[in-house]
Amino acid sequence: MQDFSGTWRLDFTRSKLHGPTPAGMLMRIEHRDPAFTQTIRLEYADGRSMQSVFEGTTTGEEFVNSVGGQTVRSRASWKDSELVIESWVDTGKRQLNFRDHWFLRGDTLIMEHRDDDLAGQIAVLERAPETAAKFDGAA
After folding, report:
1. On the CB side of 101, how many CA atoms lie within 13 Å of its CA?
2. For 129, left (φ over 0), alpha (ψ -120 to 50), or beta?
């Protein structure tokens, strides 16, 4: 098992994102296995920012979050040294399926979608402890 705790900054030059790209993305992960909380802060060129929180457990049991007004059902479990988070979102038109693989490569956090509705998306994040104060309620 890995510990993903910390504050992270997306490296846009090494990442491949689907959809609109924000000007900046920061992430805080609080991970005390089996529980984890992922807080994402998106920053836009016009000065706006948006923050979302995704909480779960690595036990394989289902958990539910609301992200961007959508209900997200998920299960997370370890596969070797990777945390695999599988999620389902019912858009009303169809059900989307996401399978996010989290793993560390040295001091770099990789979040990769390999075989789901976001296949090919990869987020490469570097530790950024200096950004911790940007999060609401940061310790």
Report:
1. 15
2. alpha
Q: Show the domains of the chain with their CATH numbers.
A: 6-134 (2.40.128.20)
**CA 92 and chain centroid, separation:** 23
Tens of pLDDT along the chain (139 residues)?
899 999 999 999 999 999 888 999 999 999 999 999 999 999 999 989 899 999 999 999 999 999 888 999 999 999 999 999 999 999 889 999 999 999 999 999 999 999 999 999 999 999 999 999 988 654 4
Torsion of CA 102, 40, 9, 36, to 10 degrees: -40
The structure's pTM equals 0.91
- The type of residue at 23 is A
Q: How far apart are CA 92 and CA 33, in angstroms?
A: 33
Bridging pattern class, strands 35-43 and 49-57:
antiparallel
